[in-house]
Amino acid sequence: MEAVGGLHPWTGEIAAYALGWSDTTGTPDSGGSEGKxxxxxxxxxGAEAVGADGAKAVPGAVAVELVHTFSxxxxxxMDGDALRRQRPAAWKAYGTGPAVLAGDALLAQAVTTxxxxxxxxxxxxxxxxxxxxxALVSGQAQDLRFEHLPWxxxxxxxxxxxxxxxxxxxxxxxxxxxxxxxxxxxxxxxxATTLERAGRHLGLAFQAVDDILGIWGDPAVTGKPVHxxxxxxxxxxxxxxxxxxGGRAAHELAALLDGPRPLDHExxxxxxxxxEELGGRTATRDEARRHLDTxxxxxxxxxxxxxxVQQLDGLFAYLLDRTG
Length: 324
Description:
single chain, Farnesyl Diphosphate Synthase, two-stranded antiparallel ribbon, 16 helices, 2 strands
């Protein structure tokens, strides 16, 4: 709240709305959803995992949440998503230009928050955050480009391309969060990098679960309309896994996906049924579990505080179980 309070009053109001703290009049909104707090928790646990006081990681926790909110503001505009956390997205509530500006302000404030940390770890933390920002842009560029590639054939998106996108778009910030906590807690570069690697695998698992929720999720939980990703023709892991199977059902799925956009309710429901029939949902759950297991092994191979590792493990499991 202190960081957002340092913004221009207008961009600060939009940021507070995006964070779920207030409504469009700036009035505190007790019913607003503030998100899951995953990245802040990872930052604090990153510091505790290397034996430091979790309070050391607070600037890192603030920075990654500001960056996360910035990315959501811009992503909603690029994807045309009208809803976020069961409310109008900021660009719908305030307009495209103001939402872009608020995102820019949050990004600048995130870097400032880390740069103003006293002590010898600030520079390393800022460098790590800036590398992460480049990765985020790369992942979003891949995701947008995928929308213009075919569903099948030699130029279609493959599993490795998809994983690269997900690692940059989602995994990079989760990895940065836990690594920033470790860095601000005084860990070596090697230890922070190990934690970042675990966080990136967590991000791949996290994105796989998000892909499931984007097709089959309950709008009351996701805050978005049912079949949101299907209607827009997003190339998500369940879709790619389903198409890889071949056969009559896969051909029917491909024909529907090549049809007009956005898909109507009946077509979207049929696509969801075909993806499930072709094993796309199961394959995505398996993908999430593989990356979660890798994240856990990475933590076990590092010299970390056992209690914090247990808490990280519990957080990892929670993220995978969001689909029930």
